[in-house]
Amino acid sequence: MEGKKHVYIMLSDTGTLFTTVIKKYTKAPYNHASLAFDPELTEMYSFGRKNPRNPLYGGFVKEDILKGTYSRYKKTTCVVYRLEVTERDVVKMKRVLNVFIKNNGKYLYNLLGVIGVSINEPVEFSNSYFCSQFVADVLRRSGIVLWDKLPALVTPDDFRKNERLELIYEGKLFDFGPIKRKLENLEGEI
User: Which of 4, 61, 88, 152 is at 20 to 30 A from 53, Cα to Cα?
Assistant: First the structure.
């Protein structure tokens, strides 16, 4: 029998002007979705800011909580979910992910797709994603279907409401146990 594994989905809110505007419209507590392969959120991917200082330059990103965009927003709130999958599912997800990694420069942020979600009309372009569309698409292309709708219509709040996801943490990102321990270890090395 194939061993059980987990992947992690983190939803977050950095509190920036852009995310505040989105929250006023969506009425949802979180507006960004990321996919991680470890409980420490070290191997985490999404579509978002390529440069922490420039919200307009976006695309496929390997997110680094301690050095990337999150490091600029210490009051970020988040919720972390665990999804049980098989070893084979993880292999398939990483295969899909490797296409993104190898072609990183070809991917753009799908801002029109975000607008499409608001009117329930999917807007899809090849090589263009928004965060929750990316996470939903990686899962779907790996055989994991959590909704009966296109990835281009999936919002971060859809993850929050999905019964297959197990809540493991909600609160300040930098208070999340594994992240807090990393920070304490770094401080101890100084």
Answer: 152
Residue 2: the pLDDT is: 65
Please state, in angstroms and rounded to a whole number, the distance separating the CA atoms of residues 160 and 97.
22
Report residue 48 as tokens. Answer: 């978002």
pTM of the model as a whole: 0.93
CA dist., res. 187 & res. 182, Å (int)? 9
Task: Give pLDDT tens digits for 107-137.
Answer: 999 988 888 888 889 988 889 999 999 999 9
Position 1 pLDDT exceeds 60: no
| Tokens at 59, concatenated | 């695309």
Look at residue 158 and give its three-state secondary structure. Answer: helix
Residues 65 and 44: their CA atoms lie apart, in Å, by: 9
Task: Give the DSSP letter string of 69-103.
Answer: GGGG-TT-EEEEEEEEEEHHHHHHHHHHHHHHHHT
Is-contact 62 134, C-beta < 8 A? no
